[in-house]
Design a protein that fits this description.
By secondary structure, the protein is α+β, with helices and mostly antiparallel strands. The chain has six helices and three strands.
Length: 178
């Protein structure tokens, strides 16, 4: 599959995963894809923790309310540091977003599925903080995303996307000609 096909085939997978372990070399490849993402002013604010120990994974999943990805055999937790870059602007959100997208694409390229869980763990209930405590993450980092990694148990179904013409144009925003 070429890169354009890979991008078009990637989507959020919220189904069950097969119990097959994810080899460390695949987790390393996925994480390296994330670390290779662009970073505002090269501040490299994104860090990652892969979790493939079933006991640690069970503890992380235990603080998720409502529960998600309970059958994933591995996960990657995305950490960020709020470091100012250009003109006192922080690009941490852009940095970790680029890293996450790279990892989602790498996961699909290697035959895995995943889902970007961010809002679920960064709400007022501070699930990300609880997860960070389990992983012994220093307070100078924030755990902002949980990516389950595994082989889909069921055939993934692509979501319906609005047509290109409704969301992308050339040279100007379309003017209504009524």
């Amino acid at each position: 599959m070429n890169m354009i096909e890979l991008i078009s085939s990637r989507h959020s997978y919220r189904g069950k995963y097969k119990p097959d372990p994810v080899p460390r070399e695949d987790l390393i490849a996925i994480m390296q894809a994330g670390l290779d993402a662009p970073s505002g002013c090269n501040k490299q604010t994104t860090s990652l923790i892969a979790v493939d120990d079933p006991e640690v994974l069970k503890k992380l999943l235990g603080v998720m309310d409502p529960p998600v990805a309970g059958t994933a055999p591995a996960a990657i937790c995305v950490l960020t540091q709020r470091i100012n870059a250009y003109r006192d602007r922080c690009f941490a959100v852009q940095d970790y977003s680029a890293a996450i997208e790279n990892m989602l694409l790498a996961a699909v390229a290697l035959g895995y599925q995943s889902c970007w869980y961010e809002g679920h763990i960064t709400d007022e209930d501070r699930i990300g903080y609880q997860m960070a405590q389990i992983l012994h993450v220093p307070d100078s980092y924030e755990l902002v995303c949980f990516l389950p990694i595994g082989v889909a148990e069921t055939e993934p179904v692509l979501p319906k996307k609005r047509p290109f013409e409704e969301r992308a144009w050339f040279n100007t925003f379309p003017v209504d000609k009524e």
